[in-house]
Design a protein that fits this description.
heterotetramer; A: alpha+beta; Rossmann fold; OB fold (Dihydrolipoamide Acetyltransferase, E2P); 2 domains; six-stranded mixed beta sheet; five-stranded antiparallel beta sheet; 24% helix; 35% strand; C: mainly alpha; MetI-like fold; 0% strand; extended; transmembrane (chains C, D); membrane (chains C, D); Putative spermidine/putrescine transport system permease protein (chains C, D)
Chain lengths: 368, 368, 277, 277
Amino acid sequence: MPQSMQPGDAKAAEIKAVSIGKTFGAFHALKNLSLDIGRGEFLTLLGPSGSGKTTFLMILAGFTAPTTGRLVMDGKDITDVPAEDRSYGMVFQGYALFPHLTVEQNIAFPLKVRGRSSADVKRKVGEMVERVGLIGHEKKLPAKLSGGQQQRVALARALVFEPSVLLLDEPFSALDKNLREMMQQEVKRLHQETGTTFVFVTHDQSEALALSSRVAIFNHGELLQVGKPQDVYERPSNRFVAEFLGEINLLPLDTVELNGETAAGKFEDRTIVLNKSITLAGKKAVAAVRPEHMFISASPQTSDCNAITCRVEGATYFGASTKYHLRTRSGTSLAVSMPTASTSPIAPQSDVWVSWPVHQGFLLPDGG
Amino acid sequence: MPQSMQPGDAKAAEIKAVSIGKTFGAFHALKNLSLDIGRGEFLTLLGPSGSGKTTFLMILAGFTAPTTGRLVMDGKDITDVPAEDRSYGMVFQGYALFPHLTVEQNIAFPLKVRGRSSADVKRKVGEMVERVGLIGHEKKLPAKLSGGQQQRVALARALVFEPSVLLLDEPFSALDKNLREMMQQEVKRLHQETGTTFVFVTHDQSEALALSSRVAIFNHGELLQVGKPQDVYERPSNRFVAEFLGEINLLPLDTVELNGETAAGKFEDRTIVLNKSITLAGKKAVAAVRPEHMFISASPQTSDCNAITCRVEGATYFGASTKYHLRTRSGTSLAVSMPTASTSPIAPQSDVWVSWPVHQGFLLPDGG
Amino acid sequence: MIGKTITSRKILLLAPLLLFLGLAYVVPFLGVVRWSFTMPEVGLGQYRALMTDPLVQSVFIRTLRICLIVTAAVLVTAYAIAYVWVRGSSVQRMLAEFCILVPFWISVLTRAFGWLAMLSNRGLINTWLQSAGVISEPLALARNELGVIIGMTHFLIPFAVFPIASAMRSIDERVLLAARGMGASRTRIFWTVFVPLTYGGLIGAALIVFVFALGFFVTPAILGGGRSVMVAELVYLRIFQSPDWGLGAAISVVLVLFIGALLALMRRFIKPAHLIG
Amino acid sequence: MIGKTITSRKILLLAPLLLFLGLAYVVPFLGVVRWSFTMPEVGLGQYRALMTDPLVQSVFIRTLRICLIVTAAVLVTAYAIAYVWVRGSSVQRMLAEFCILVPFWISVLTRAFGWLAMLSNRGLINTWLQSAGVISEPLALARNELGVIIGMTHFLIPFAVFPIASAMRSIDERVLLAARGMGASRTRIFWTVFVPLTYGGLIGAALIVFVFALGFFVTPAILGGGRSVMVAELVYLRIFQSPDWGLGAAISVVLVLFIGALLALMRRFIKPAHLIG
């Protein structure tokens, strides 16, 4: 590995986005967004299509100018620096390889632009070809490569000039599942090896959770929450984040009383105790529990657990896990996901207890 | 619900494919494939792209003629019946709606082709629009609808003439994750309500497991295994099926002894006991265990469990579960997937025991 | 998501091109406009003559009639050729391609000459029919309005094939398969699915052909033998055979304005991409 | 996966179309071929004349020279116009569209006439220059080979714009963004990425223009004032002004064979889709 690409290298940049806004005509693509991207971190911008995540990436890249706000890199204002002078690596959706150039020429392009000597270009391209596992394909045109190989060329081309930031715009959306997982590991490895700051855009929440050091969740041009994967998954700050990151059961609570570290509310005459993740000043609220944190049993579990009675309506087999569809007495539908191996089959239409540990449930504001 | 669409309706057809082969020039797209499709079942054809699953569907639909073999529907040879006379419903990848016709006109098309009276057409289209939840969108052109709505129009159009078989060619591949799950439930419900025979093509193994009454796994133009989701996932007949349906750990065994209901072999000097799913006449074999059937602990579990020692190399967080990457003493890499909530964090580079219940492991032939 | 930002730098780059376009296209036309108002003397005299001269009037009406007939004939033929081109076997495609492209590039004249060889009194058809004893006097196939229509239709077919073929090519094959799967016959699919999906290309082709036919000159001059004078030929006659440059210029201006109006109308219905195949 | 099966039913449907294509395109040409061997007498006499007649030879050479110059001039201009059309602002696009489409459809003659209005001794340029005192005698801009080249270039530009614009349109915007993101200047991107990605369209345009220019007739006849006789015009003169139909037919045949050979060559390099925009 070349000396200059060690982790923690000074080449990794930190970027501060301050009050970034972007309008296209009357459409507000981004609303007053502030976000600090740390040196060498792997930040994922996650959100549905049209949430503004790609617009933000394009502003970071310098391809789109923000309507309001500033971008500061390593203390320097770069808002008006054009893309060609920012020198960030970028991997586009669909790869955007130069179709008329060979693998080698594609990877050499950014070095040639920088006027590197041909010996230098040759050495660096050779290193990069080896690092991404493309030896033997150097002379091929992109059209002759498989999707995964094209992806590797795009990564190599974006990293060969040792950029301080690598931007990735849904790079795996065209790959099938097995290849996608392989490329995810590859990107994770490249991040660790190069120590470069990675900013990754995706709409796939499991990809975001698996790869990132932090996840930023976007919706309707707003940044809803930023945090480590565990934080956003287990302590989402609102309903959109909770639902976007995975399936979630929502139980409306009648009254909520805050009580030191915990909160308690009534659901179908039973008291539900929850972690007090957010402060709700006397408002209505819902208890939120993920399907895999609940379990089904014939009798209620009591030690540090909440429990409610439900009727089983059906089951869906997913291999590793089986998802049970249930309904509470008042008609709220629930999903409980359990490892397939762990339980004896549960008969449809039987009445069961659904329990979950107190620390796995959390409060969310009602209707938002 | 109209009388004629009750489950178990005589309109559902059974199809026997006998020794179907298809060559395109020198390429063998399908090799001597025989498969019985039961009346009213939900059969999924699963495989990677190029495995022949779509070719088989096109032969079922009558759009492609098989090179060899016969198709028999309800005892009648239909090999040479053209597509327009088979009257199967079909939902295409990308929907294939008529872009110049409204939702209503799209759904009415197959009825008009059949010369139904306009009152009859109106009534049936109205029923179908209601059933798929498109009320209020009847006069819109497909381009004005969202992906999910277009998908619903395609389903309505394919089901409105009460076909005896519904063929679905990767219908959800263009939808995002949440919408895809919703449409999967919709298709499952329509299958239960209509009782029609559904043949579904996909490359997504979790979709196949969740929806089907049986799954047929294709690779390189061959049918590798057919069975219920549980059977193919937990008792795959070969390595391709095992790996395609989900991640799997493979431990090479030195010697295998068959012993009544179980088999035993040596891995790193420990005896591994497995279910005897296949008969291996003295050959080399591998023990196969899915990551979610293994668990990590500080000491070996002994009651009906196998256990081996491993070193933890890393972990990937997936929200509901966390996947640990491990390596055995002899260098075989393992993945263990555990519910995130169930364990205290496991430190990287620590030595641990990995155990799994005897009934969760199975034998596969070595190298195939 | 990727907005194209027009920077001031880009505008500077484009300025010389715009200047060129103006010089090459706008200025020559302005010269014609000037002549139409100044020759032989300054005033609206030529436009007044244009409105009142019965010869000019009858030429305009004949032009319109021929152009409409030609447009209809071209569309039917071009649709058939485009169909073979887009959906035939590979041999049929090559044949269609050859038939479309070769005549498109061979000069108007060489082709009009080919038609004369077919249609004239001494041509193939009359020779065959006479030697077979079917007719005793040669049929009047060329050098009249029928000749003009045949020649123009033949010339304009390729221009209509391209937009129609383009519309056909953009039809999703699965939409047609879907219709078949629902039990529709091939005839039904053709009329209720295939043809409606090519309307855009048909409208584009009709406008192209009509506008082109209006400005038609060479083929009528040869095949019509001077008897079917059409507008564009009138311009030629006025300028080069009589010294009446002013009226010729005035006719040109009217022609350009009429075509401009048609184009503006068309822009409201179809995208330019449909027009050029 | 969806194989197009050519059923026998389909072949039956296509048969009348193929028959039509044959009648409309192949038979007329065969008539010309027959004439070239039979007029005024049966034999190869006309082809022998074609090989030896110094007038015919010099016309062929002049034709080739003019066509090559025109092709080069057209490509440069068409590339610039296509660039504005594909990548300019919406106003620029509309302007370019107008400039391309209007002249494309207005008759050859009206436009040649527009150029005469610009270039002739009594035309705009000479009038301006004389009244400004820059020149005393009018410059010889029209009615010579320069006039022919200007007129032909102008006429052929739209035919070249379409394939070039089509190639430009098919460039993935992200590939250009990627190059910018890697630090390449606009000039560098244009020459090392943009232009190479339009080679297909450029080759197609060059062949179209060259072949079309070969068959050119009307513009040279008017602008060249009879002094720059080109091949296609020679055909015309031989047929309609002298009674030498046989030589005219022979020239036509040679022209068609030459163009056919060029087309065959072209098929090996580019797809037909590139040729028609």
